[in-house]
Amino acid sequence: MSDFIGDWHALVVLVVAGVIPNQIWRMLGLWFGGGLDEGSELLVWVRAVATAILAGVIAQILVQPPGALASVPDLLRYGALAAGSIAFMLTRRSIFAGVLCGEIVMLAGKWWLG
């Protein structure tokens, strides 16, 4: 079992430093935001800002790819984005389908190119 899990100390650090602090804010957000109207101007603005930040991060990763992604040709990165966007629109705006399709195109293209 220890071979499967690996270094259990790293998993403990991951849970303590990553998961627990994040979950506290999620639970507080659920508790405080439970009665908010989803169509309110404040939440529409928050959703727009979150979408803009995500779009900026995706654009930065496409234009200046970090780490191993830098070895993937530009055309393949942009093609995976296009395929994911098309899948997103064809599946009634399913984020899961868009991400999955983009990942499949990226992995298949990288495998094909070697």
Description:
Helix 4 (74-90) runs antiparallel to helix 5. The protein has a domain at 1-35. The two termini are 34 Å apart. It has 114 residues and is an all-alpha fold. Helix content is 78%, strand content 0%. The protein contains 5 helices and no strands. It has helices at residues 2-5, 8-33, 41-63, 74-90, 95-113.
Terminal CA distance reads 34 Å
Low-confidence stretches: none
Overall structural class, as computed from helix and strand content, comes to: mainly alpha
Q: Over all CA atoms, what is the radius of gyration?
A: 19 Å
Number of contiguous helices: 5
Helix content: over 70%
For the biggest sheet, the summary is: none
Quick gist of this model?
The chain is about 80% helix and about 0% strand. It is an all-alpha fold. It has a domain of about 35 residues.
